[in-house]
Amino acid sequence: MKARKEGRIIADINKFIKNFDKDNKYYLQNIVNLKKELPSDFALAISTVLECSGLTLEEVAHETKVSIDTIKRWKSESDFKVPKIEKLVAFCTGLNLPLEISEDLIRVSGTGFQNTISDMALRVKLRI
Question: Is the whole-model pTM more than 0.90?
Answer without folding.
Answer: no
